[in-house]
Write a structure and sequence with these properties.
Layout (H helix, E strand, L loop, with lengths): L1 H7 L7 H11 L4 H17 L4 H10 L6 H17 L6 H11 L1
Helix pairs in contact: 2-3, 3-5, 5-6
Length: about 100
């Protein structure tokens, strides 16, 4: 349901209330919920680079998630950020996180 709403208006991801709600889903007990939240944010972070800096801290901490699907999704998103946004200020940090995780 949240994906449909954000698809209609991706600018909603700029709102603090929604960011807090997404962060809550990143911490959900169910790995499937965490993975869906990471996937949702990943799609829009890659489409709207101005969101990358805002959601990067949440995404990057999920690289240590206990769910393998969540970790794999985060690694893919971080890799895509490196390729699609070469001017992203945390690029070196992303590379270090990826190297440590692989």
């Amino acid at each position: 349901a949240l994906a449909a709403i954000i698809s209609a208006d991706p600018n909603l991801l700029h709102r603090n209330e929604l960011r807090l709600g997404v962060h809550g889903r990143f911490m959900d007990q169910a790995a499937s919920v965490r993975e869906a939240a990471v996937d949702l944010v990943g799609r829009f972070v890659l489409d709207k680079p101005q969101l990358t800096l805002q959601y990067y801290p949440m995404l990057s901490e999920r690289i240590l998630d206990k769910g393998i699907g969540v970790r794999k999704r985060v690694i893919k998103i971080l890799r895509d950020i490196c390729v699609q946004q070469p001017d992203f200020p945390k690029l070196t940090e992303i590379c270090i996180k990826l190297i440590r995780r692989i």
